[in-house]
Amino acid sequence: MVKKARIGILGASGYTGAELVRLGLRHPQFELAVLTADRKAGQAMADVFPQFAPFSLPKLVSVDGLDWRAQALDLVFCALPHATTQLVVSDLLDAAPATRVVDLSADFRLSDPAAYEQWYGHPHQALALQSEAVYGLTEIYRKEVKAARLVANPGCYTSAAELPLIPLLKRKAIEPDAIIIDAKSGMTGAGRSAKEATLFSEVSEGFNAYGVAHHRHMAELDQEFSKAAGQDVIATFTPHLLPINRGILATIYVKLRKDKTARDLRTILAEQYDGEPFVHMLRYGDMPHTRHVRGSNMVMIGVVADRRDGQAIIVSVLDNLVKGASGQAIQNANLMLGFPETAGLEQIALFP
Ligand SMILES: NC(=O)C1=CN([C@@H]2O[C@H](COP(=O)(O)OP(=O)(O)OC[C@H]3O[C@@H](n4cnc5c(N)ncnc54)[C@H](OP(=O)(O)O)[C@@H]3O)[C@@H](O)[C@H]2O)C=CC1
Ligand SMILES: CC(=O)N[C@@H](CCC(=O)OP(=O)(O)O)C(=O)O
After folding, report:
1. How deeply is 251 buried, as exposed, middle or buried, from its count of CB atoms within 10 A (0-12, 13-18, 19+)?
2. Would the CATH topology of 5-153+323-337 be identical to that of 157-320?
3. Does the C-beta of 192 come closer than 6 Å to ligand 1?
4. Closest residue CA from atom 7 of ligand 1
5. Could you tell me the strand order of the sheet in which 134-135 lies?
6. Residue 324 near ligand 1, beta carbon < 6 Å
7. With contact defined as beta carbons under 8 Å apart, do 12 and 20 qualify?
8. Residue 1's pLDDT band (boundaries 50, 70, 90)?
9. Is 301:327 a contact under the CB 8 Å cutoff?
10. Which residues line ligand 2 (CB under 6 A)?
11. What is the pLDDT of residues 169-215, one digit of tens each?
12. Using CA positions, which residue lies closest to atom 15 of ligand 1?
């Protein structure tokens, strides 16, 4: 029998934590050994999420006082609110340095401490780990992820924008100073804790932009686009809140470099993602729908020329809880633990 990896999920009573449990229960090489919660510590997972009642799962415990060494976990998924995470991961790795960590929060995504402080409003509290962490956009950083002890899983909006744009910037196919990302997210992107802004009555039958000109994912986009282009890049990014549960759709406007066409962009992306199990390039001119990826770890990307000369439009979709969070986290964990990259992630989208 194959030896299973002992897995911890911190924040299992939240949306991304529950998605890790949903996918993890069907993972052939995971043993879900530790599940934590904050307000819901002490409860059974099935009392918090009745969909798990038929399955045997450990009780939710508080993260405080966990004996990391005694738990001997092979890998921990950390799905806690950002800023909470850095001290928890620091304690964990001090006590159990051989445990691998995939952090779903934003705490370790920015490699520059000054950028972190500027965007999050306080100094980072685990600087050594911040510089050790590998940015976990799997298709771009696969080699680094394999060897990492701590992976910073990217944000959901950023995954949707970076997968199409990084290869185009690297290949100098688009102008780096003329990128516009108009992105929409489903409500689960805001997490499960109660907030006025996410009440049904505030969100249904309406649609709004938020974080306009200052959303914190801009820092992550600047970092990755600048690295890919080899020069400073500042993209325009505007997120919107959609009254649906799951899904991100990013409509991206780009200016072509002189000798390039929109068909060239599609060719570059098709070459880059040829053979990738979780990125699908649509035929030129075809466009994706959030329903085509719901519940799956797939990203779908469409490209077409704008009517304006020299401009192209790219549309990218993913499920914010899967490829935008827990699915990509498991994809990274599979690489770190030497499992097949697709293990536990072979679900096809739930349609309609
Ligand atoms: N939702 C999404 O689409 C995405 C989320 N992320 C990131 O993933 C992380 C988790 O997000 P999400 O699942 O949506 O969040 P939720 O608000 O749904 O869940 C948060 C979890 O953390 C626990 N928790 C809250 N505060 C503390 C604390 N002080 N100490 C220990 N545990 C605590 C909660 O426990 P309890 O419920 O018991 O209070 C809950 O289990 C966040 O950092 C988020 O930014 C990343 C990409 C996409
Ligand atoms: C709809 C919604 O509120 N979305 C979240 C982004 C969720 C995400 O990707 O993640 P991180 O928090 O991990 O960066 C927001 O705009 O802050």
Report:
1. middle
2. no
3. yes
4. 105
5. 60-61, 30-36, 5-10, 75-78, 100-103, 150-152, 134-135
6. yes
7. yes
8. low
9. no
10. 82, 105-106, 155-157, 185, 189-190, 217, 239, 241
11. 999 999 999 999 999 999 999 999 999 999 999 999 999 999 999 99
12. 191
Q: In the annotation, is 156 catalytic?
A: yes
Site to substitute for ligand 1 among 80, 90, 293, most atoms within 8 A of C-beta: 80
Q: How many whole angstroms separate alpha carbon 85 and alpha carbon 328?
A: 18
The 279-281 sheet, strands edge to edge: 208-209, 236-241, 180-185, 248-255, 311-318, 299-305, 279-281
Q: Are 102 and 93 in contact (CB under 8 A)?
A: no
Length of the chain in terms of residues written = 352
What is the predicted ipTM? 0.98
| Nearest protein Cα to ligand 1, atom 33 | 38
**Ligand 2 centroid – CA 55 distance (Å):** 29
Domain 5-153+323-337 class in CATH: alpha beta
Please report where in the chains the tokens 């993602």 appear, as a residue: 273
Beta bridge partners of 314: 252, 303
Pairwise CA distance, residues 68 & 247, whole Å: 34
CA 83, CA 101: separation in Å to the nearest integer? Answer: 16
Closest-approaching ligand to the CA atom of 321: 1
| Domain edges within the chain | 5-153+323-337, 157-320
- Span 115-140, pLDDT tens digits: 999 999 999 999 999 999 999 999 99
Question: What are the pLDDT digits (tens) for 61-88?
Answer: 999 989 999 999 999 999 999 999 999 9
**263 CA → ligand 1 middle, Å:** 40
Place of tokens 């600048």: 226
Name residue 249's beta-bridge partners. Answer: 184, 317
Q: Give the ligand whose atoms come closest to the C-alpha of residue 19.
A: 1
Tell me which amino acid residue 257 is: R
Among 92, 93, 126, 156, which one carries the catalytic annotation?
156
Report whether CATH 3.40.50.2020 matches the domain 157-320.
Answer: no
- C-alpha closest to that of 184 among 166, 207, 205: 207
